[in-house]
Amino acid sequence: MVFRSGPLAPGVAFITGGARGLGNAIAVSFAKEGARGVVIVDINDEATFEQGKQNVEQYGTKCLIIRADVTKEDEVARAVDDAVKEFGRIDYAANFAGIIGPLGNTWDTSLDEWKRVIEVNTVGVWLCNKYELRQMMKQDSHRPLQRGSIVNCASVNSIQAGAGTSGYTASKHAVMGITKATALEARSYGIRVNAVSPGFLLTKLLDPFMKMGDEQAASEAWTKYEVRQGRKATFDEIGDVVVLLSVPRMSLVVGHNLVNDGYVLCVPISYATY
């Protein structure tokens, strides 16, 4: 077992979407940097949960797994309560549960499909912020100038739109609105709220994109995005940025959207398959 050390000790992190992929990399980054406890909130199967937990606990950090749907208020409230029962507090939160949803022109997208993206990506983030903030406001500060830190998952789509992604783009613009508003509301309590905007990562969220048209065309399209980014991005590069925003030394960074995209935003986004 590796000894824990780092700038986040002895805090507790609460990660939604944390069982696999990007979310789990974020959970691992918190463990590497000294968090004494990491809570993984997700809706995955037991095998995925257990693997995600093992990835965290190899660093000597205790990991609690909680099954909860971020679109359901009672489940979000319960997840926060369960985390506090286990660890006594929540110092850091990273809200990374999300979906990309169907890809297609607005006139071909059903209302139910569009609303589902908003429910997960926007309502889910809002609900998590609501209950994370309620908890953080009740607890004493372990560090000067910071009672808690929340990092929401935005996207390069929170800044630029992409054809065929009206639901996803709307949801990520809304995430930034939530982030800025809650940052203003919470700053007097010593709680910082920020967001991270990753570039292109080959996550499960992009399954619909990779399945568009034939496999070769999808692969070629992905390669173009990768070239724009400069190189392949890794999950832990995003995880480390979330940790960076969370450390108490970042005390004046509030309501910020930290873009971690290589240089994707230097070139307009266009989904060539549409």
TrEMBL record:
Keyword flag Magnesium: no
Entry-linked Pfam families: adh_short_C2
UniProt-listed InterPro entries: NAD(P)-bd_dom_sf, Sc_DH/Rdtase_CS, SDR_fam
Species annotation: Exophiala aquamarina CBS 119918
Signal peptide (residue range): none
Recorded superkingdom: Eukaryota
Name of the protein in its database record: Oxidoreductase
Family annotation (PROSITE patterns): ADH_SHORT (PS00061)
Listed SUPFAM superfamilies: NAD(P)-binding Rossmann-fold domains
Gene Ontology MF terms: oxidoreductase activity
Matches recorded under PANTHER family: SHORT-CHAIN DEHYDROGENASE REDUCTASE, SHORT-CHAIN DEHYDROGENASE_REDUCTASE FAMILY PROTEIN
Keywords, alphabetical: NADP
